[in-house]
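Late entry, evening session. Most of the bench is empty. Finally got around to the prediction I had been postponing all week. Sequence below, unchanged from the version circulated by S.P.
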Amino acid sequence: MRFERSAGILLHPTSLPGPFGIGDLGSEAYSFVDFLEAAGQKLWQVFPLGPTGYGDSPYQCFSAFAGNPLLISPEKLAKDGFLSLKEISVYQKSDPYKIDYGEVIHYKKLILKKAYLNFKKNSNGQEENYNSFCNENEEWLNDFAFFMAAKDFHGGELWTKWDKGLVVRDKKSLDEWKQKLTDDINYHKFVQFQFLHQWCNLKKFANEKGIKIIGDTPIFIAYDSADLWANKSIFTVDKEGNLETVAGVPPDYFSSTGQLWGNPLYRWDVMEKDDFLWWRLRMSDTLKLVDIIRIDHFRGFEAYWEIPGNAKTAEKGKWVKAPGEKLFNILKKHLGELPILAEDLGVITKSVEALRDKFEFPGMKILQFAFGKGMERRFLPHNITPNSVVFTGSHDNDTTRAYFEKEKEAKNDIYSHAQKYLDYYGDDVVQKLIKIAYASVADIVIIPMQDVLNLGGESRMNFPGKLGGNWTWRFTWEQVPGYLADTYKEMAELYERPPKPKKETEIETEG
């Protein structure tokens, strides 16, 4: 699927401003959509929207289907009559630039429990919608709500350490625990109902302004997830959850031992038997939440690095072919043309490129990686192709300003090459690079909000391999100059994102 020439901004909802310690789906999210519209932007890219676990990473979620309770707006819950203003005001405002997940999780659980109790007393006319939500999403919702209720009961322990009957999903044990945890299960269903209600309202608001949402789908699921607990037969674990093989990447110049991710792999042969039903459900559900899907680690659909489940590093593994072409053909057959962007970074083979190009999925270009000897020359602006998405940087890298400041201080060829290539020797290399991205032939340009605001390394989102302290960055409106929206709107118009409508004379000439 080819996409219209357009521009957008990468910002996860957790990074929005707001008085409750974390960005959410309340009024500030609507203000951000207004900003996007004023800035001539047509795309808003977010990370996975699922419920985060240990480490707070949106790429390691308790479910590939559920929404993150931390994104639910207390303000909206109060507006819908499930909380009072007094009940939501108990949060003590902390650092507006950084999320304290410990505080936020405690607060959100507190008010969500209160909202659920109030809902049981008075549904405020939402009972019918709630029941419809439960029925329409029972494929994943029942198992997820059960999983979260059981996890709460067991003090947050990994599911393999629960009561043995629950671990192996013995029918008698499941029935007994389901009865025991009925109210807790219903609580988690209510939370998911509120997330979907708030998110869909926000998405509708954005869509009505001509703005599409780009979501994110990690190729693999988390080990500690309802997906694995409820569907062991399609993943590489035994019935007790012991890992037989796991995902990762082999040793390279970044790491002599490779990267051991620890995610279970798919039993593709089993999945093929029902026409990849789990994937069909996952993609169709994702497309209810977003307009375009970015697939993380796309190369894993062509071949993946299989590591023994008991390995300590990723060194001892092997490449195994994946049925990517079969999968995407089946998805296309059942769901139609898929609006997919392929995260094709790293060492990409001709076979991966062929799979990407067969389905016309746009690949990614990162301008930070383009300059200097031994870097990605394919990302240099003159090598960028139309069917692609160009970024200044990504969530796993430093901000563009911090990156070039470090390279300048190091006095290596990266900074000097960038200066020569851009023919720019001033101090605002970030804005120059953004203009180059907008001027490129790439159909889509996405700029991280940190680069839009020209922020330094203190605003970096994630340090891969580092435990703790990630995913905490937030911005405030005080950081947004009054002229910024006009600047971006002018740039979008100048570089025709979107393209200018053709005049009638041009259409007649083409005809």
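Two things to note before I forget:
The chain is about 40% helix and 10% strand.
The first strand starts at residue 6 and ends at 10.
Will write this up properly tomorrow.
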